[in-house]
Amino acid sequence: MIPPERLDQVVRIVERAGLNDQTVGALREALTDLHLTYCMDDDVGVREPVRHADGFNVYLVDGRGHCMQFTSDMASATGIVLAEVDENDEV
């Protein structure tokens, strides 16, 4: 489970610091109980993000079963995907 406050905290940090390897690395060090993934938004596919932010989208992952899968249910989420949006791809 990822509490809404934790997700808000991660989004605020990334909004302030920018989405990059250093920010994600610092988050991984600070939030060891949370799985974090950084990728490009077009790598995610057609899934609807749980949050939109300036320059990135946020998705949730459920890793409790045999395979990881996207979820919109915060109660079953075990990780966060921070997906950078390419400015050229925005409509």
Features:
five-stranded mixed beta sheet, alpha+beta
Summarize the topology.
Blueprint: H1 4-17, H2 21-30, E1 35-40, E2 51-53, E3 56-62, E4 69-71, E5 79-84
Parallel strand pairs: 1-5
Antiparallel strand pairs: 2-3, 3-4, 3-5
Your description of this structure?
This protein has 91 residues and is of the alpha+beta class. It is built from two helices and five strands, in the order H-H-E-E-E-E-E. The chain has helices at 4-17, 21-30; strands spanning 35-40, 51-53, 56-62, 69-71, 79-84. The protein is globular, with a radius of gyration of 12 Å. The model has no long low-confidence stretch (mean pLDDT 91).
Can you count the helices?
Answer: 2
N-to-C SSE string, H for helix and E for strand: HHEEEEE
Largest beta sheet, briefly? Answer: 5 strands, mixed
Q: Give the end-to-end Cα distance, rounded to a whole number of Å.
A: 33 Å
Arithmetic mean of pLDDT: 91
Strand content: 25-35%
Rg, alpha carbons:
12 Å
Low confidence ranges: none
Number of domains: 1
In short:
The chain has 91 residues and is of the alpha+beta class.
